[in-house]
Specification:
With about 350 residues, the protein is an alpha/beta fold. The protein contains eleven helices and 15 strands. Strands 1, 4, 9, 10, 11, 12, 13, 14 and 15 form a nine-stranded mixed beta sheet that branches. Strand 13 and strand 14 form a beta hairpin. It is globular and about 50 Å long.
């Protein structure tokens, strides 16, 4: 029987934000929600009906247990989460409004997850029935020991024949312990079988400009020949990866985004490779853009099992999942498969 379980690994965060587009200095109350890239992917997959297990380390406190309960209520298997340390990582979100961009302030130094070390997690037992291990660049950014623990997971996944999915998730403000972020994330990229990044992250990691996505409506024409050459060069540098998903967004206003994606893929490592484009979604009425990239990644992970022989369907499904996330408050994408299928049927 084919294995279909997906394991995601990363830090669970507690998010503080203000309602009604208030700045952090305004108002008396914060709204709190749990999130974090890899947890977001896990929740989305559980919502879509996939078997998913989430691995992290949380403080053995009421706040840590509340976060775990939040994930479990949404269908995520958390029975092997580790407890230890003294605090959960947090971040503060100031929402975008009009011409003002959103702002994120991290407070995750010395968090329970940042103190993870190799040997703490029993990866051999966790991965023995897994098809995919999903990781992101964030776990290598928060501390050297967390980075070491992440590469240990990649080593054991390779040893056990488990596929690796990777989200670049470059967060400039997190890299404070002395490692070279580009070199570290390239090491991760060289170890993955499928990946996601937004256009800015792609440009950053390979240090090469790409054609700009400046769509103001759904008739925008993509420069596919230039993109194809760009992806071909990337694949020559990182030949293991067989699915390259790039999300592209143009924010016309804080509440109106144009969103699309490209998928460079092959049915086998030997090719042939092809570059596919998705429709452009004009999202007028964005509620919360947090976790949109994680919705892309979850959409891809779900669809590679649901539609293994239809790469165009995989791409369109990933984009539709991400587009719907923009309409849902919080970090988690709670869009169901029925809702994604309905949007796909309406998009030509």
């Amino acid at each position: 029987m084919q294995k279909t379980k997906i394991v995601t690994f990363g830090e669970l965060l507690l998010r503080f934000s203000k309602n009604d587009h208030l700045r952090l200095s305004q108002g008396d109350y914060f709204t709190t929600k749990y999130g974090g890239s890899e947890a977001n992917v896990a929740v989305s997959l559980a919502t879509l009906g996939d078997q998913v297990e989430y691995i992290t380390r949380l403080p053995d406190t009421p706040v840590g247990h509340a976060g775990l309960q939040n994930l479990m209520q949404l269908g995520v298997d958390c029975h092997r989460v580790l407890f230890g340390g003294t605090r959960i990582g947090t971040y503060y979100l100031e929402p975008a409004a009009g011409m003002r961009a959103s702002r994120v302030i991290y407070d995750r130094a010395n968090s329970a997850c940042s103190e993870l070390k190799p040997g703490m997690i029993d990866w051999h037992n966790i991965l023995k029935d897994a098809a995919v291990l999903h990781v992101s660049g964030i776990t290598t950014a928060i501390s050297q020991s967390s980075a070491d623990a992440t590469f240990e997971a990649l080593d054991i996944a390779d040893e056990m024949g488990v596929k690796v999915s990777f989200d670049i998730n470059y967060r400039k403000n997190l890299w404070r312990y002395g490692a070279d972020p580009r070199e570290t994330l390239k090491r991760m990229l060289s170890r993955c079988d499928m990946m996601f990044g937004d256009a800015i992250e792609f440009e950053w990691i390979c240090q090469r400009k790409q054609p700009p996505f400046t769509a103001t409506n759904t008739t925008f024409e993509m420069q596919m020949d230039e993109y194809r050459e760009w992806f071909e060069d990337l694949h020559r540098e990182f030949p293991r990866c067989t699915k390259w998903l790039m999300g592209m967004r143009n924010m016309v206003a804080s509440s109106r985004h144009l969103l699309t994606a490209l998928l460079y893929t092959a049915d086998s490592p030997d090719g042939p490779y092809r570059l596919l484009k998705a429709p452009i979604h004009d999202i007028n009425g964005v509620v919360d853009a947090s976790g949109v990239g994680d919705a892309f990644m979850a959409g891809l992970l779900h669809s590679v099992f649901a539609y293994p022989d239809d790469a165009q369907r995989q791409l369109n499904y990933s984009l539709a999942a991400s587009a719907l996330k923009n309409t849902i408050p919080g970090d988690f994408n709670l869009a169901t498969d029925d809702e994604i299928q309905e949007l796909l049927s309406e998009t030509k």
